[in-house]
Amino acid sequence: MTAIIYPVIYILIVLSPLALIFINGPFTDHGYLYEMGKAFALMGFVIVGMQFILSSRRKWIERPYGLDMIFSFHKAMAVLGGILILLHPVLLSLGSGNFKLLTSLSLPWYIWLGKFGLFLILIQIIISLFRIKLKFGFEKWRLSHNIIGGIFLVGAFAHSIITSHADLKLGSLQILWTGLLVVALSFYVHHKFMIPAKLQKQRYTITDVRQEVHNVWTLEMSPPEDHNRYHYYPGQFHFIKLHREVAVPDEEHHFTVSSSPTQPGVVTSSIKESGDYTSTIRHTKKGDTVSVEAPFGRFSHVLHPEDKKFVFIAGGIGITPIMSMLRYMRDNKSKFDALLIYANHSEEDIVFRKELDDMVAEGSPKLNIVHVLDHPGEGWEGETGFVDQTKLTKHIDNFKDKAFYICCPPAMRKMVLKLLKKQGVSTSQIRVEIFSL
Ligand SMILES: Cc1cc2nc3c(=O)[nH]c(=O)nc-3n(C[C@H](O)[C@H](O)[C@H](O)COP(=O)(O)OP(=O)(O)OC[C@H]3O[C@@H](n4cnc5c(N)ncnc54)[C@H](O)[C@@H]3O)c2cc1C
């Protein structure tokens, strides 16, 4: 139900400046085009204010949708907010018939403040949309994103309050955007300062570090003595910030919890060395500490009780959430039918191979595994190449009665989704975890 109510509330809040303008009538004698120019800026401001709430990782916001969906929405709304704010000076000029706002350099300082805000928000959107193409590092982007967002919000607020005092009496609108500023800033302070301070005080401890295969390491984390391990569903993920003795950056990253909640007292993450930060994971030592924010995500069969027969499709390290679910099924002696299609480059890359084989032998869940290798060594008798139509139809007897859980690299995901669509699988049967937010 909340999944429907939240969007309605969101739309009502974003449209509220428009409604107030129409209810109270034009505040100047420039007419509705000019007022729309003001309303667009206010709606843009409301959207930016709501961005702070959307990205605050509050559980009650995230739970109905999953964090990936919230962040996709956050991205789309940033573009919409940017367009509305960009149209603001254009409509004001068209509405008043006076284009000095766009062309003149001799403008009051609070108008320049607005122009500076517009410039900042456009830079922010362009960098965010094209970060990878622009080779802008994630940490640098995150820092600039937080700083620019905060400066914009306060600057835009000052601009709008001062300009409205100068020529209008917009009492109800001023109350609305003052309230929004206070709410947005309190979410920001809570997310950026209060939560990290709390997590810092309640650090987990690394109690084991194991090498799974040549480039994947499992970290086991235990809560502080006077705390219980947090509750989670198999397949969910957490944000962790390792505090290590070796001189490596204290960055926050998200990783799936590869253990099952049935394992008492600890959580594990299995991490592949794939980039700047993850390539330092092997330097983690027992006794290092870690701030943990959790749990997040909806990629869990427990959250979809309607699913009874499973096809898990994993590529490489995408096995981790699936492993968590399979471990949970095993520990609960579940009799679910499950097929795991697990793609890797070579046999050396297959993570958790022995444990998966043991699960097949134990029979709960009733698990079949199809390994697919694109660089098979000599003597490999299993499937080779990529996951394709032939392999899917060979190993899946009926596509209609299964739930498909997919976690793999982007190219494979795209291909698998296309193949499933061809087989008539509906989107309601498909759950996807994406390893980037
Ligand atoms: C829900 C989810 C679950 C995941 N589970 C696992 C898992 O179980 N095991 C595993 O090995 N990997 C997992 N990942 C992927 C993992 O988070 C990234 O591989 C890792 O953060 C990349 O960091 P890097 O600096 O080593 O790589 P880089 O090559 O430096 O960065 C690669 C990309 O990772 C992203 N990234 C980099 N730094 C951060 C950061 N601090 N916060 C967020 N994103 C960042 C950016 O998109 C960047 O472009 C998961 C990701 C998500 C979203």
How would you describe the overall organization of this protein?
Helix content is 48%, strand content 17%. The chain has 437 residues and is α/β, with parallel strands linked by helices. It has 3 domains: 2-200, Four Helix Bundle (Hemerythrin (Met), subunit A); 204-296, Elongation Factor Tu (Ef-tu), domain 3, CATH 2.40.30.10; 301-432, Rossmann fold (3-Layer(aba) Sandwich). It has a 6-stranded antiparallel β-sheet. α2 (32-54) runs antiparallel to α4, α2 packs antiparallel against α7 and α2 runs parallel beside α8 (171-201). The longest helix has 31 residues, at 171-201. The model has no long low-confidence stretch (mean pLDDT 93). The chain binds flavin-adenine dinucleotide (FAD). Flavin-adenine dinucleotide binds next to β4 and β5.
Any key phrases for this structure?
alpha/beta; Elongation Factor Tu (Ef-tu), domain 3; 6-stranded antiparallel sheet; elongated; 6-stranded parallel sheet; binds flavin-adenine dinucleotide; 17% strand; Four Helix Bundle (Hemerythrin (Met), subunit A); 12 strands; Rossmann fold; 437 residues; 12 helices
Total helical elements: 12
How many β-strands, per DSSP? 12
N-C termini distance: 25 Å
The low-pLDDT segments are none
Helix content, binned percent: 40-55%
Counting structural domains, the number is 3
Q: What average pLDDT do the residues reach? A: 93
Largest sheet: 6 strands, antiparallel
Provide the spatial order of strands within the biggest beta sheet. Answer: 4-3-6-1-2-5
* Class of secondary structure makeup: alpha/beta
**Radius of gyration of CA atoms, rounded to a whole number:** 26 Å
Percent in strands: 15-25%
The CATH top-level class label of the largest domain:
Mainly Alpha
CA-based shape: elongated
